[in-house]
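Marked as duplicate of an earlier ticket. Keeping the data here for the record.
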Amino acid sequence: MKKLLFIILLPLHLVLFAQQPARSGKGEPASFRIIYGKLVYVPGKGAAAEVPAPTARKFIGTGKGMGVLTLDGLSNTNMKIKPGTYSGIDIINPKHVKIDARDVIIEAGTLDIFQATDLEISGLSLINHNYRAVNIRGFCNQLYFHDMNFKNIANTTISYEYNGIYDGTDKTASMDWKFERLTFENTGTGFSAGGGFDSAGIRNLLKNFKFLNCTIRNNQGIGNIVYSGAMDNYEIAYNTIDNINHTFPSNAPNGIHNGIFMIMGNGSFHDNLVKNHQGNAIRAWGMSYNNKVGDISIYNNVVWNSWKYSAFEIQVTPDMAAFLKSYPQWATYTNARVYNNTAGHLNTSKDWEGQMIDVYHTGGGTLQYYNNLGFEMNRSQGEITNMINFNGETKLIKNAGNRYLKTMKQAICDTLSFRSLYKGIGANRAVR
């Protein structure tokens, strides 16, 4: 039977071209349909259901440029949302979907995503909301957000609400999320994934999460840019953080000893520029999963001009240590390497430690610490030595090549390039 080409005439905001699949018998083939104003993927029935969902090589237009847009059940397709200002967008159960949202704004509304698999969204801006900007619910894998903007968001910017138990297999981990080239200005927490551990097991483990090339500026109360209670093999890299967390109370400790990145798990933190801020650049609380000892690697970062705290923190808290001891079949310690970082002008409040790294109990893990460059740091008592603030038992197996100078001019060329004056010591590339 010949294939028939249908042109469905819709309002000007939506033109959809679809090709009727060949029928292999009685029943209805899979298709896209407009149902009550929503673009919906409809599975096939009967023998024709064996025909796979259509794979769109071109982007299909949708949306009115205003109001609430709902995309339900999309599969194996590419969508282009009509530019304009929307009050909300709902994406329900998408599978293998790309969405081009360039010149699309959600103002005072929310992007809601439920149970997504392989969803890519680009170009979207979310502004002027007094609560959360993005709510992600249900078990999700392979989310890729890129080239998106967030401004004036009063609460958490991106929230992932899932509490499933990790059984040791990838099918129960939230896999392969990637956030790239996102901008945050005057927002609350950037991304909160929840997660953690209890007697039932590891909850909401994110595996292979990446946060790359993002810009976070002028966020006076953001607190955490990323918070997760369970991450395996994260990568936080090439980000620029400037002028954040200046509205926090002035006394320390104050209940807001924040980590700009606050992550329990293992992974890498590298090639980031963090300046004019309060908080450790990262509080890396070490945990590995499935009895495979992972690493925390912190390198090639520049951290400059903090109101409080040291550049980095590594520890295993008492409750984490108790969990590792009670449930060795689920989790274990990590090893850490901190090397070739440049940090200076730290803890200008001078009421707390402001050195290269705060190290607490590491739960049996080791620390390698080398080729770091520091200047203009503060210590609560005594002189700066190796720039480590030790507060617990740690196996320091390498401590070499670290250098501390009293002034910036002795250590780096300037506070634009932060180029080290000492070959092989400090961040070995010009971080943006």
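See parent ticket for discussion. The two ends are 60 Å apart (CA to CA).
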